[in-house]
Amino acid sequence: MSDEEAERVFIRLRWQNGEPHCPKCGSLKISQGRRKGLLRFQCLDCHKDFSLTSGTLFASRKLPLRGYLMAIAVFINEVKGKSMLALSRDLGTSYKASFVLAHKLREAMAAEVAQSKIGGAGRKAEIDAGWFGGYVKPANRKEDRRDRRKVANQSGKRKAVVIIRERGGKTLPGIFRNEADALNFIRANVAPETTLYADEAAAWNALHARYELHRINHQESYSLKDEAQTHTNNAEGFFSRMRRGEIGHHHHVAGPYLIRFAQEAAFREDFKRVANGDQADKIVSLAMRLPKSAEFCGYWQRHLPLKDAAEG
């Protein structure tokens, strides 16, 4: 792909009508030219000077546009995630550059996941929780080892990824200290008419007052052959793929980044039957509509501390 072809892709996905307009005043009176070979625009009304990526998630870019398209194509082509070290090798960039770029792509995915509307009359959704982070390495000598299942022997950094997954619909994750803290999150994002399915965890008992809630005891079976089709297999499948991504690609997902990895996994889950090219177009379109990243713009220069967006 030539630079001009890459530019046309970004123009098409940033401006739906294919006509650039001023990001400041919205005027269509635009002149365009090149500065050091790069395409630039200027508004003839307010004289705002801007590029294809000005004011977007890819603002102040260093890579050529073809590099961003390649990064998105490679990133989205993976089923369970993409290692940022492997991405740096594919792009021929430093690990730092691929680290920030990958998280910006996850930020674009998160914008789509956050718009998910769950449930409604006649709709069914599953809720479940999986635990990530807070790994405690066992002691070398057997006599020094402790039972890591006990709270006293844990690091306190382990958090629950609570997933709401509508059958035949969208997936919405949240990060909490425990399952009970997710109840308000579920009530706020799931319509009252929705039929819910959950496992035997006591934290979900309070949901019976608001929803028609079917329970499955995993100590006895993983699914029931009843009229309600009681199981949480779709939610369990989400955690299976997210866990494989953690083990096989990332090796460690925790802290303020955990919500980003969960949102990435939710996006991949929702769009897994969509053609890869359409997925790539979707991420470019989302990135072009998002403002500069408050978390990752200037990340390595410590311009702004990364906020822990995991809670709630």
Keywords:
single chain, 312 residues, alpha/beta, five-stranded mixed sheet, three-stranded antiparallel sheet, 8 helices, 8 strands, 33% helix, globular, disordered C terminus
What does this protein structure show overall?
It is a single chain. This protein is an alpha/beta fold. It is built from 8 helices and 8 strands, in the order H-E-E-E-H-H-H-E-E-E-H-E-E-H-H-H. A hairpin with a 5-residue loop joins strand 2 and strand 3. Helix 3 crosses helix 4 (95-113). The longest helix has 19 residues, at 95-113.
- Structural class call reads alpha/beta
Taking the sheet with the most strands, its summary is: 5 strands, mixed
Q: Uncertain segments of ≥5 residues (pLDDT<50)?
A: 308-312
Tell me the strand order in the biggest sheet. 6-5-4-7-8
In short:
With 312 residues, the protein is α/β, with parallel strands linked by helices.
Chain-wise SSE layout:
Elements: H1 3-14, E1 30-35, E2 38-43, E3 49-50, H2 65-77, H3 84-91, H4 95-113, E4 124-132, E5 159-166, E6 171-176, H5 183-189, E7 195-199, E8 212-216, H6 233-250, H7 258-270, H8 276-289
Helix pairs in contact: 2-8, 3-4, 4-7, 4-8
